[in-house]
Write a structure and sequence with these properties.
Oligomer: single chain
Helix content: 40-55%
Number of strands: 6
Structural class: mainly alpha
Strand content: 5-15%
Distance between the termini: 14 Å
Length: about 300
C-alpha cells in the first residue's frame, strides 16, 4: 500500500480490527492464561505479546525467522535448539494473527526475503549442519510504504523531488518474488481537507461493525465449504483444490486468459488471483465467481491496471 501522505499506517492499524474476531473464531482462538481473569502463565506471557516491529528496531534476519541456540552439555557437546522469531510468534501468540510492517522498504532486504517461505508454505524451516526444524508460521502480512523516498510521487498538491534513479532504487528493495506473494496492492490517495473534517462524504462508508459482520459471514461460508479438506480459508487452497472450488464460466475464463497474456502473469500470481476472486465472491455472498469479482481481483493483484 502506498500513496502520498494519507495516514496509511493508521489505516492499516484499523484494518486489523474488523477481521480480528472472525480470524480468531475460525482458528479456535483461546485467550492465554495471563489474559483471563485470575489466570497464570509464564513470565514471558505476563510481559505481553511482542509488538509489531518497526524499521528502527534491531531486527536482524534471525529476529524474524529464528536462530538455533547452542546449549553446553557434558563432555563438551552442544545441542542445537530452535528459538522462535517474530514470524513464528505471530502464529504462536495470535493463532493466524497479523504481522504489520510500517515503512516496509526500510527493513533490510535480507529480513524481508525470509518471509517468502512462510507466506508461501505457512511454515518456516531453520536448517543447520545437523538439524532442521520446522515451525508453523501462518499469518496475515500488512505492509505500508511510500511511493518514493520523499513520499510525494503522484501527489496533486506537492511536487516530488526524487529522481528516476532514486525511485527505482527505493522500490527495488521489494523483490518481485516477494511482491508475487502479496495478494492486495492498493494505492491510497491523499484525503481532501473536507474529508478529513468529515464535512463532506462522496461515498457511503461502511463502519467497522458492518465490515466485521461481512467478514464473519465469509469465514463461516469458507469453514463449511472446506470442512472435509482440513483447511480454513481460501488462501490455503492448493492448485488441485483451486480447480475444484474456483471454477470459472466462459466469460471469466476468457478474461483470465487475456490478462495472463497481456500482463505475463506467473503461475503463482494466476492462482492467487483466483483465490482472491473466490474471497471477494464470499464477501459478496455469491456462490460462484462472477466476472465482476475476477475484475476486482485483477485490479488488486496487477499494479499496471491501477496505473
Amino acid at each position: 500500500m502506498w500513496r502520498a501522505p494519507c495516514g496509511e499506517s493508521r489505516l492499516l492499524h484499523r484494518l486489523r480490527r474488523p477481521a480480528g474476531r472472525a480470524r480468531r473464531h475460525a482458528a479456535g482462538f483461546r485467550r492465554p492464561a495471563a489474559a483471563r481473569p485470575g489466570g497464570h502463565s509464564s513470565p514471558a506471557a505476563r510481559r505481553g505479546r511482542p509488538g509489531h516491529p518497526a524499521p528502527g528496531d534491531a531486527l536482524p534476519q534471525r529476529g524474524f525467522s529464528g536462530l538455533p541456540r547452542l546449549r553446553q552439555q557434558r563432555f563438551g557437546r552442544h545441542r542445537a535448539k530452535g528459538r522462535h522469531g517474530k514470524v513464528h510468534r505471530r502464529r504462536h501468540g495470535l493463532r493466524r494473527g497479523v504481522l504489520f510492517l510500517d515503512e516496509m522498504v526500510e527493513f533490510p532486504r535480507s529480513v524481508l526475503e525470509t518471509m517468502r517461505q512462510p507466506l508461501e508454505d505457512g511454515q518456516i524451516t531453520i536448517s543447520r549442519t545437523k538439524h532442521s526444524v520446522k515451525y508453523p508460521a501462518k499469518f496475515t502480512l500488512l505492509g505500508a510504504m511510500n511511493p518514493c523516498p520523499c513520499g510525494f510521487l503522484g501527489d496533486k498538491e506537492k511536487h516530488c523531488t526524487c529522481s528516476d534513479y532514486q525511485i527505482d532504487r527505493y522500490r527495488s528493495r521489494l523483490s518481485g518474488p516477494l511482491l508475487d506473494r502479496i495478494d492486495l496492492h492498493i494505492e491510497v490517495p491523499r484525503l481532501a481537507t473536507d474529508e478529513l473534517l468529515g464535512t463532506t462524504q462522496s461515498f457511503a462508508a461502511e463502519s467497522s461493525a458492518q465490515i466485521r459482520k461481512r467478514v464473519t459471514t465469509a469465514r463461516k461460508i469458507q469453514a463449511q465449504r472446506y470442512a472435509q479438506e482440513k483447511i480454513l480459508t481460501n488462501c490455503e487452497l492448493t492448485p488441485k483444490l483451486i480447480k475444484k472450488y474456483c471454477k470459472l464460466y466462459a466469460e471469466s475464463e476468457a478474461l483470465m486468459k487475456s490478462a495472463a497474456a497481456k500482463y505475463q502473469l506467473s503461475g503463482r500470481r494466476f492462482d492467487r488471483i483466483l483465490k482472491l476472486a473466490r474471497t471477494i465472491a464470499d464477501l459478496d455472498g455469491a456462490p460462484d465467481i462472477a466476472q465482476t469479482h475476477l475484475m476486482q481481483a485483477l485490479q488488486y493483484r496487477v499494479p499496471e491496471i491501477l496505473s
